[in-house]
Amino acid sequence: MKDGPDGWGWSFELDPVELGKDEDGEPVTTCVVRLTSEPAILKTSGGRKAKPGRKPDNRKLLEFEASFNNAMMDCAKDHYVGGDPAALVRAVRVEYVRERFKTRWAVDVTDPKARSTKISNDFRGILKALPPGFYTTGADEHGVELIWRIPQ
After folding, report:
1. β-sheet bridge partners, residue 42
2. Is the model's pLDDT at 76 over the cut of 70?
3. For a surface tag, which of 56, 90, 108, 149 has the fewest beta carbons within 10 Å of its beta carbon?
C-alpha cells in the first residue's frame, strides 16, 4: 500500500467487467480488484521485517494461499477426514490449487519447459512444508490428493 505501513502484504486478482459496448459493438471493459488473501506481515528469512524495495521470502507462500483460497471458492467439496462422519471439512483437490498457482507465480525463467519445472518445484516445496493449519490426504487409488485448512 503506497502510504500504508511497511512490511505488510496482500494478494489481489483483477476481474474483468464489461461495462457496455462502444459504437462499433466492441465490449468496453474495466477491471475490479478482488482481495484473495488476508493481510500478512512479510518477513525476510532472518525473521526481520522486510525492508522496502526488497522481495519478501514469503511471497511464494502468499501466492500459494491466494491460489488455495481461489480454488476453495470455485471447487471446494465436503470431505470426511479418515472417513469419520464427525470430522467434516471443506477441501479441494491439490491439482486445482496447483493450476491456480501456475497462473499466479512469476519466475524469472523465459524458457517454457524450464519455467514449468521451476513453478512445479516451487509448488512441490510448499506442499512438503505446508504452512500451519494446512492438511492433505495424500493421493488415493485414483491419484486424487485433497488439501484443506483448519484456522489456527
Report:
1. none
2. yes
3. 108
Q: What is the pLDDT of residues 15-72, one digit of tens each?
A: 888 999 999 999 998 888 877 666 555 544 344 444 444 333 578 888 999 999 999 9
Q: What is the CB neighbour count within 10 angstroms for residue 92?
A: 23
Please state the φ and ψ torsions of residue 135, each to the nearest 5 degrees. Answer: -140, 150
**pTM, 2 dp:** 0.61
Q: Are 37 and 65 in contact (CB under 8 A)?
A: yes
Q: What is the CA radius of gyration of the chain?
A: 18
**Smallest Cα–Cα separation from 123: which of 102, 144, 109?**
102
The sign of the dihedral angle between the CA atoms of 14, 44, 72, 97 is: positive
Mean pLDDT of the chain: 80
Best CA proximity match to 37, nearest among 60, 64, 11: 11
Which residue matches cell numbers 523465459? Answer: 110
* C-alpha cell of residue 13: 486478482
